Amino acid sequence: MTTETVLDFDRFNRIGLDEAIFCAGKSVEQIEAILELAEERGAGLLLTRLTVEKLEGLSAARRDAIDYCAVSSTGFFGSVRRIVSRRAVAIIAAGTSDVGVAREAERTLRHAGVEATVIADVGVAGLWRLTERLEEIRTHPIVIAVAGMDAALASVLGGLVSGTIICVPTSVGYGAAEAGRTALNAMLASCAPGLVVCNIDNGYGAASAALRVLSSYERLRHSGV
């Protein structure tokens, strides 16, 4: 079978992150060809931005081999790494509308063997919801903050939590929210020092950043530094 795709099967050995397939913009036929390549190598793949329509367009054999999550539009094809880390990462979603992006981060981490804690609907409009969970959040060395609209959650966490904070602005909102631009700018301009900010709706990127941090922790631990 001919394909326009060259899969990066050696990525994990180079940078500690597995190959992932961004399905938006790819045809069903292209995705099918990619899955065939992975199957021939016995490799598992993380599929992101995989719509239900494209999933249903795949052959029955390929479709049945995918663990699909409609909330995050992600799929696990083939083998998934065993869980090697728990309670290292907390994913905090400001509102229920932000959960799709939060789940993309969660699924990306799980595919890599990291089980994250997801806490949703704790935005600043009802600050008590966040403060009630604050001690639980603080037990995690890495926190991913997912928020749209004014994205105030990121700054609040940045002033209360000592761990690494990775921020994901979402496109949730309307009018002045500008499809996530306002949230992005608010996170970038935050007064809370040391926040890391990803692109709009990029749960995958936030999870990848968390995996890089975890990998750095492990290298430091083994080096004795």
Distance between the termini: 50 Å
Tell me the helix content.
40-55%
Strand content bin: 15-25%
The CATH topology name of the largest domain reads Rossmann fold
Strand order of the largest sheet: 6-5-7-8-9
Secondary-structure element series: HEHEHHEEEHEHHEHEHEH
Q: Helical region count?
A: 10
Quote the average pLDDT: 94
Count of domain modules: 2
What composes the largest sheet?
5 strands, parallel
Structural class: alpha/beta
The second-level CATH architecture of the largest domain is: 3-Layer(aba) Sandwich
Notable characteristics:
single chain; alpha/beta; Rossmann fold; 2 domains; 20% strand; globular; PurE_dom; Circadian phase modifier CpmA; hydrolase activity
Can you offer a commentary on this structure?
There is one protein chain. The chain has about 220 residues and is α/β, with parallel strands linked by helices. It has two domains: about 70 residues; about 130 residues, Rossmann fold (3-Layer(aba) Sandwich). Helix content is about 40%, strand content about 20%. It has ten helices and nine strands. The protein is globular. The termini are far apart. The model has no long low-confidence stretch (mean pLDDT about 95). This is Circadian phase modifier CpmA.
